[in-house]
Design goal:
Number of helices: 6
Oligomer: single chain
Distance between the termini: 13 Å
């Protein structure tokens, strides 16, 4: 009968539970913030938003999702201090729990600790593989949404490939972005800056999970060779 050595792995169930709660809270809070932006830009342009001094313009913030009405002596955001602060706290908790849980999978602590659970290296490979699959799939999905046009024809992405319309003056695959120049001289982007940045940042969890998976595979192979 074969003997499978038992090693240690950190308990990350609570971290993932808090991560899921923070993810839901961030999603609900962001949806509420987006609802508040529906007419805010128009209200700011019409001068219906009260602020410190005369209105001078407005801008959209990706996170927290808000329209910021700019005034001579300050600015007013549609998220407000309470909702905006809540979203930043929820996002901070989400990021900390995510990376802590993923980095914990790199380690192989000694058995006996309160936060350590026994597991085989085969189980460790399965667990890290699942994390890598989920985070990698999330990155690929975001990249497909923002960068698919670049793979069809990066130099003509602004004109749609028919030789007409705006001219592509610059493009890049990471982050997926292209700069478009119209005949009138105005400049636009293929993707909003926040979307390109989000796609780039989503590669970080996949990278961390990939390192954990690679370590698990390497340790399992070394154990099998030692047998």
């Amino acid at each position: 009968m074969s003997h499978t050595p038992t090693h240690g792995g950190y308990r990350t169930d609570r971290l993932w539970a808090v991560f899921r709660g923070a993810l839901v809270a961030t999603g609900i809070g962001s949806a509420m913030a987006l609802v508040g932006t529906l007419n805010a830009d128009d209200d700011c342009g019409r001068g219906w938003t009260e602020g410190p001094g005369a209105p001078t313009g407005s801008r959209f913030e990706a996170f927290p999702p808000s329209v910021v009405c700019e005034f001579e002596r300050g600015e007013v955001s549609t998220t407000g201090d309470v909702l905006g602060g809540f979203l930043w706290v929820a996002m901070t908790v989400l990021v900390v729990c995510l990376f802590t849980a993923l980095i914990a999978e790199w380690c192989e602590p000694r058995l006996g600790g309160r936060l350590v659970v026994p597991m085989s290296r085969k189980e460790k490979r399965s667990r890290t593989g699942a994390a890598f699959f989920v985070t990698g799939s999330a990155f690929l999905m975001l990249y497909a949404l923002t960068g698919w046009q670049l793979f069809l024809g990066p130099s003509s992405v602004c004109s749609g490939g028919d030789g007409r319309g705006p001219t592509t003056t610059a493009y890049g695959f990471f982050p997926p972005q292209a700069t478009c120049l119209t005949a009138s001289g105005s400049v636009s982007r293929l993707n909003p800056d926040w979307a390109a940045s989000l796609t780039t940042l989503s590669a970080l969890p996949a990278l961390v999970a990939g390192i954990g998976y690679a370590l698990a595979v390497r340790r399992l192979r070394a154990e099998r060779r030692a047998r």
